[in-house]
Structure to design on (308 residues):
């Protein structure tokens, strides 16, 4: 019998046999409307986390009160309060995540995950995710796929890719997290993207699994409006070092898709402005070179199809 399963090799299930193999970190800023649904999803898991640190990132609504109710009834939830400037800020979120990760490092869990405060999932989610790691020792970063509500039902989010894991549900194998290091506090976001590129740079595999459904309850871009969100994403693309040709082809591929064309155009415009200004990036030249090599390889099938 292994240390984390029964004689058949199955992961222990149920509250009495939980294995505490993983820890979770959540950065929450004014999530009163969503976080209870997330908490209920976690406490309903057939395999519970050993610890879940929820960092209230300067919340001014009832987020802290909601979390405190569950701290008193759960043995694994911890609330960490952090003060900040009262605005939704991606760098601030990363500072909050890293504060939680610093506390988590002493716990020595096999896996550690970043979990947003506006998602939900079924009771077997973490059991099934841990199984994916067990099946592939090179899998360093994994998670489910994001589903969003459209027309009254949750559907697979446009733009999902099995080779990328949304920051809302990134789970790291401990050795992979140690190799990648802490999240980068980039002003425009993209710390999740940086983490998965860095993981692949160091030889780890990154994958999301569409069969592991994660429901995202806050509409994308709703915090500051869609146009502002698209503009920020272009600045993020530049900050991380995305290849200009990759950005152009990404826009071209959106031309037939009217609902997303304006977003792609806005994103590219802000990317072009940032390129013109040549603002210093937080990532290394080696990181940029690796990312652009990946993007070039992804472009080859597109280019070949247009030459045939």
């Amino acid at each position: 019998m292994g240390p984390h399963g029964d004689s058949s090799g199955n992961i222990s299930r149920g509250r009495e046999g939980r294995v505490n193999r993983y820890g979770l970190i959540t950065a929450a800023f004014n999530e009163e409307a969503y976080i209870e649904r997330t908490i209920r999803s976690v406490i309903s898991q057939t395999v519970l986390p050993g610890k879940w640190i929820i960092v209230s990132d300067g919340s001014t609504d009832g987020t802290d009160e909601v979390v405190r109710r569950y701290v008193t009834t759960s043995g694994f939830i911890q609330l960490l309060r952090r003060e900040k400037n009262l605005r939704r800020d991606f760098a601030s979120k990363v500072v909050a995540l890293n504060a939680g990760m610093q506390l988590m490092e002493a716990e020595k869990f096999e896996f550690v995950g970043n979990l947003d405060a506006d998602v939900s999932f079924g009771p077997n989610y973490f059991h099934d995710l841990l199984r994916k790691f067990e099946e592939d020792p090179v899998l360093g970063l994994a998670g489910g796929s994001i589903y969003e509500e459209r027309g009254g039902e949750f559907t697979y989010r446009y733009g999902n890719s099995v080779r990328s894991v949304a920051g809302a549900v990134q789970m790291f194998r401990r050795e992979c997290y140690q190799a990648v290091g802490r999240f980068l506090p980039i002003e425009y976001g993209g710390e999740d993207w940086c983490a998965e590129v860095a993981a692949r740079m160091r030889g780890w595999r990154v994958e999301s699994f569409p069969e592991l459904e994660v429901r995202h309850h806050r509409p994308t871009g709703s915090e500051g409006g869609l146009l502002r969100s698209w503009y920020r994403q272009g600045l993020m693309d530049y900050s991380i070092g995305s290849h200009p040709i990759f950005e152009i082809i990404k826009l071209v591929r959106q031309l037939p898709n009217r609902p997303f064309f304006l977003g792609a155009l806005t994103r590219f415009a802000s990317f072009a402005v940032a390129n013109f200004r040549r603002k210093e990036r937080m990532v290394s030249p080696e990181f940029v070179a690796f990312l652009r090599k990946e993007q070039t390889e992804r472009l080859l099938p597109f280019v070949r199809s247009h030459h045939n």
Observations:
- The beta strands are 22-28, 51-57, 77-82, 111-114, 119-120, 139-150, 153-156, 171-173, 205-216.
- Residues 137 and 255 are 40 Å apart (CA to CA).
- The chain has two domains: 22-216, 226-305.
